[in-house]
Design a protein that fits this description.
Elements (H helix, E strand, L loop, with lengths): L13 E4 L6 H10 L2 E4 L1 H18 L25 H12 L3 E4 L2 H15 L8 H12 L3 E2 L2 E3 L8 H11 L4 E3 L5 E3 H7 L11 H6 L3 H31 L9 H5 L4 H14 L3 H4 L13 H4 L1 H23 L7 E2 L5 E2 L7 H29 L22 H17 L21 H32 L7 H11 L12 H12 L2 H10 L4
Parallel strand pairs: 1-2
Antiparallel strand pairs: 3-5, 4-6, 6-7, 8-9
Length: 523
């Protein structure tokens, strides 16, 4: 599965992790910006207290799951004390069974942080020294090599987390802070970190969580909040390029349907179109169109619904970020209980919801692009915005590219969470497939950024062709940004580098930043 990540921006900061919840912004800071993790003092006491309970059960003659028994379908098998260190090693080694391409560094850093966060709740029975070593590995920039396939999203993201636990043991492969692949043993030695010999329960505590899918959800929410603002900007540029009206975005009209996200998107469109000479050029209208097409007129409704879905996903993510996901867990009153909180359904569902949102926003964007290229619908623009239509093809095939991506996004919108394949000899007979949902969402977000980029590039050329009329301040700023890398209208030229340049602007948030540099903060 191929993904193009949003650009990391290094920043010097520290995220303090303890018994309380961390936020999406903390995940982004550690995963993308290299923030270091510090353990707060209250977490140390909580971890020590829960470990004391595990140590007491370890010497009990009665079997206790994950402490003195096997795992999964082997939960009824008693393991003698002298074999338990091997039990933990074997668990991690056997579960580090991923296959396929490497997973991106930011994803691995996010899942490592989230596992640390759960370990520090004091509900897993981990030893404090083990968590400290995990934190040290993350802060040293050591990134275990995790493979694309292996997680069913229940019991959590077992294989990805096992690859990380394996590295903590000094086994397997990692990349160091420079991105160089090497053995985990060599990387830990270079960083002055002793490999961990796992004690009772620790193997389970290190691998039994929803951290992989939750980390990717957190990163996706961060991406989409920026991309939906960029989609509003692109839509406004298209409204100008197509001689559309801003009247439909009026606040009183939007208030007749009090959907929160819709109001925010409409506000962005009003800000972008305010004072636009192009919009003013046909007010009072000499334009014969009574109503603009849905892809223009209804953009706040679609982009707004997308925003509301992202907000719902953030609500679910926030609850999960406050969770202690492990099995068994050490309860607040000192019991050690099996549970089903590792099931990834809550996260899996919203990952699928967001893939639907991405496909629909991209679909509407592509329709605006197509409209600008069709002389029957573009109100005076040349066919395909070509310099000499017939000799030149203009942006004809750029629209093909957008259409091809949108078609793929529709396929990626098919939910993963409705699928389930029984595993572990039918002990784990219903799984969430949340990891698969997260992986396809990352691909979908990359596709959305490219479709929006093609709309921005197309609208920029169309706005140039409206001269001597000029666009509003926000569109003008984006147009200046695009022209810093992409030439204006002219004879046909190699388009792929231009699409990639504008796609980079969109992914880095530069399109949003350009508009905000003239207009102030947008929603």
């Amino acid at each position: 599965m191929t993904t193009q990540l949003l650009t990391e921006q290094p920043i010097s900061t520290v995220v303090r992790v303890g018994t309380g919840a961390i936020g999406i912004e903390d995940v982004v800071a550690v995963a993308r910006r290299g923030a270091h993790v510090e353990i707060v003092d209250d977490a140390r006491a909580a971890v020590d207290a829960s470990r004391a309970i595990i140590d007491a059960l370890a010497v009990d003659v009665a079997p206790h799951y994950g402490i003195s028994t096997g795992f999964g379908a082997l939960a009824s098998t008693f393991i003698a004390g002298e074999q338990r260190a091997q039990l933990q090693r074997s668990l991690v080694r056997s579960h580090a069974a991923g296959s396929g391409p490497e997973v991106e560094r930011e994803v691995i850093r996010s899942l490592m942080l989230l596992r640390i966060s759960t370990l520090l709740t004091g509900r897993t029975g981990i030893r404090l020294a083990t968590v400290e070593s995990y934190v040290a590995m993350l802060n040293a920039g050591i990134t275990p090599i995790v493979r694309e396939y292996g997680s069913l999203g229940c019991s959590g993201d077992l294989a990805p987390l096992a690859h990380c636990a394996l590295a903590l043991m000094g086994e397997g492969e990692v990349r160091d802070a420079r991105g160089v692949a090497m053995s985990a043993a060599d990387a830990l030695d270079a960083a002055g970190i002793e490999p961990v010999v796992l004690a009772e329960k620790e193997g389970l505590a290190l691998i039994n969580g929803t951290d992989g899918m939750l980390g990717q959800l957190s990163l996706a929410i961060d991406d989409l909040r920026m991309l939906l603002t960029s989609a509003d900007i692109a839509a406004a540029m298209s409204v100008e390029a197509l001689l559309g009206t801003d009247a439909v975005f009026a606040a009183d009209l939007q208030a007749l349907r009090p959907q929160h996200g819709q109001a925010l998107s409409a506000s962005n469109l009003r800000a972008m179109l305010a004072g636009s000479p192009i919009v003013e050029s046909h007010r009072p209208s000499t334009h014969t169109v009574v109503q603009d097409a849905y892809s223009l007129r209804c953009s706040p409704q679609v982009h707004g619904a997308a925003r509301d879905t992202v907000d719902h996903a953030a609500l679910v993510a926030g609850r999960e970020l406050a969770s202690a996901v492990d099995n068994p867990v050490v309860t607040v009153d000192g019991r050690v209980e099996s549970n089903g909180n590792f099931h990834g359904a809550p996260v899996a569902y919203v990952l699928d919801f967001l893939a639907i949102v991405v496909a629909d926003v991209a679909s509407m964007s592509e329709r605006r692009t197509d409209r600008m290229l069709d002389p029957a619908r573009s109100h005076g623009l040349p066919a395909f915005l070509a310099h000499d239509a017939g000799v030149d093809s203009g942006l004809m095939i750029a629209q093909y590219t957008a259409a091809g991506i949108v078609s793929e996004l529709k396929r990626l919108a098919v939910p993963s969470s409705v699928d389930s394949i029984p595993s572990s000899a039918m002990q784990e007979d219903h799984v969430s497939m949340g990891w698969a949902g997260a992986r396809k969402l990352r691909t979908a977000i990359d596709g959305l950024s490219r479709v929006v980029a093609i709309e921005v590039m197309t609208a920029s050329r169309a706005l140039d062709l409206r001269a001597p009329l000029v666009p509003g301040a926000g569109s003008a700023a984006v147009l200046d940004l695009v022209r810093s890398e992409v030439e204006g209208p002219g004879p046909d030229r190699f388009l792929s580098p231009e699409i990639e340049a504008v796609a980079s602007f969109v992914r880095r948030g530069a399109v949003r930043d350009a508009a905000e540099s003239r207009l102030g903060p947008l929603n």
